[in-house]
Design a protein that fits this description.
Layout lengths: L2 H16 L3 H6 L1 E8 L12 E2 L2 H14 E14 L2 E12 L5 E13 L2 E8 L2 H8 L3
Parallel strand pairs: 1-6
Antiparallel strand pairs: 1-2, 3-4, 4-5, 5-6
C-alpha cells in the first residue's frame, strides 16, 4: 500500500478512538500485532506489550477504566514506507486520583497489507505515573 493509504488507516484508527469504536480499531489490526506502551505497569496498567486483538482490547479496557480523556489530538503524520508516525497532544484526568495529565506524544505505526502489525507509543510516562500514583 502507498504511504497515503497507510496514513489513512492510522487516521481511521484515531477517528474510531474519538468515537469510542474499539471494534473498528481491533478490525484494523493484523491477527498478530506488536503493540507496546512503556512505563511501570504497577502504576500505569496499560503499560505493557500485547500481541493479539484480545490483548489490545484489554489495553482499551484498562485505559478506559483509568483515564477520562478531555482532549486527544493527532496533529501531524509522517509516513515512510510501511511506517506512519503520528505526533499529537492529549489531556486527561486520572479517575482514581482526579489529577490531570497533559502531554505531547508520538506514536509509531507499522502496516502490512492495510492492517496494523506494529504500534509503539512514546509518552511522558513520568507525568502519567504522577497523575495515577496514589498520594
Amino acid at each position: 500500500m502507498s504511504e497515503q493509504d497507510n496514513t489513512a488507516v492510522v487516521q481511521g484508527v484515531y477517528a474510531a478512538f474519538a468515537r469510542g469504536d474499539v471494534a473498528f480499531i481491533l478490525n484494523s489490526l493484523a491477527d498478530k500485532v506488536d503493540w507496546h506502551h512503556h512505563g511501570p505497569p504497577l502504576i500505569i496498567p496499560w503499560a505493557k506489550s500485547r500481541h493479539s486483538r484480545a490483548e489490545v482490547a484489554e489495553f482499551f479496557t484498562e485505559l478506559g477504566q483509568t483515564m477520562e480523556f478531555e482532549q486527544f489530538e493527532p496533529r501531524k503524520y509522517v509516513a515512510q514506507g510501511d511506517t506512519v508516525v503520528a505526533l499529537g497532544y492529549w489531556k486527561a484526568r486520572a479517575k482514581a486520583t482526579g489529577r490531570r495529565v497533559e502531554e505531547y506524544w508520538a506514536m509509531e505505526w507499522t502496516l502490512a497489507d492495510g492492517k496494523v502489525v506494529g504500534y509503539r507509543a512514546y509518552d511522558d510516562t513520568a507525568a502519567i505515573a504522577a497523575a495515577l500514583r496514589p498520594s
